[in-house]
Design a protein that fits this description.
Layout: E1 2-7, H1 17-30, E2 36-40, H2 49-62, E3 66-69, H3 80-85, H4 89-94, E4 102-104, E5 108-112, H5 128-140, E6 146-150, H6 164-171, E7 175-178, E8 185-190, E9 196-201, E10 216-223, E11 226-235, E12 238-242, E13 248-250
Parallel strand pairs: 1-2, 2-3, 5-6, 6-7, 7-9
Antiparallel strand pairs: 1-10, 4-5, 8-9, 10-11, 11-12, 11-13
Length: about 250
């Protein structure tokens, strides 16, 4: 079994210090049991250099392998020249040296898919080139590995990916891990061919801009055919596990 921590929407620049400290506290208490982290975008609030520096420092202190992908807040908003010509320059400069874009081992294959569309403010879209990169990656992964795709924009829900069904059809993931919504959730999707995909959305793990829900993250226990999603919400004393019914999913292999 693999234990994967799934965080999103840290939004350095608007990150709550109590949330950040509480993530470190959680890692110091339970970090030994965690194999990998997946952080699904919106690392920063406005893609400023000092925000990326804080994000990088967070990863360096984190002490675990991190699979990362950018969110819509990680490209410059107001400098249109930069936004259109080199949207991911700061993300690449600061975060790519300390994170991975993918990870695979005999049990899990995880790919961080870029979904940011710099031509619009918030909506997401996956390019054909990204899909091809992911297909190549999964073709080299162990056939028995659980296929996990990270996307910033969720497949369904508010502000979903424009072409999320293409991700499901072409990559046939067992799990999609998303962010962006600032509200957590987990649900099983039945695809047109009858296969199943678990769609997990992390709440904002540290932003002080909340949408009616406390900061949170997930701890996933991943085995082929069975995935448990445990959600931790921020309280005064730190992140605390809140047991939710129906969060153990049986996923038919495909
Ligand atoms: Fe966000
Ligand atoms: Fe976002």
């Amino acid at each position: 079994m693999k234990r994967i921590l799934h965080l999103a929407d840290l939004h350095f620049g608007r990150a709550h210090p109590h949330a950040v400290e509480s993530i470190y506290q959680f890692l110091s208490d339970q970090g030994k049991e965690i194999d990998l982290a997946v952080i699904t975008g919106d690392w920063t609030q406005r893609a400023r250099v000092e925000e990326f520096e804080a994000a990088r420092e967070f990863v360096e202190k984190f002490g675990k392998k991190v699979v990362s992908l950018p969110g819509n807040h990680d490209v410059p908003l107001y400098n249109l020249w930069q936004r259109w010509l080199t949207p991911l320059e700061r993300y690449r400069q600061h975060l790519e040296p300390v994170t991975q874009s993918a990870h695979h081992d005999p049990e899990v294959a995880v790919f961080g898919l870029h979904t940011v569309n710099p031509w619009v403010v918030a909506d997401g879209r996956v390019s054909s080139a990204e899909i091809s990169r992911a297909q190549n990656f999964f073709s080299t992964a162990a056939p028995e590995a659980v296929r996990i795709v990270g996307t910033h924009h969720p497949i369904f829900g508010k502000q979903p990916l424009e072409n999320g069904t293409k991700v499901l059809e072409t990559l046939r993931p067992h799990v999609v891990l998303s962010g962006h919504a600032h509200r957590e959730g987990a649900e099983l999707i039945v695809n047109p061919d009858g296969s199943q995909t678990l769609h997990v959305v992390s709440g904002s793990s540290a932003s002080n801009r909340l949408r009616g829900e406390e900061n949170s993250f997930h701890l996933l226990e991943v085995e082929r055919g069975r995935i448990a999603v445990k959600t931790f919400f921020l309280k005064d004393t730190g992140f605390a596990y809140l047991e939710k019914k129906g969060r153990v999913f049986a996923i038919a292999s495909h």
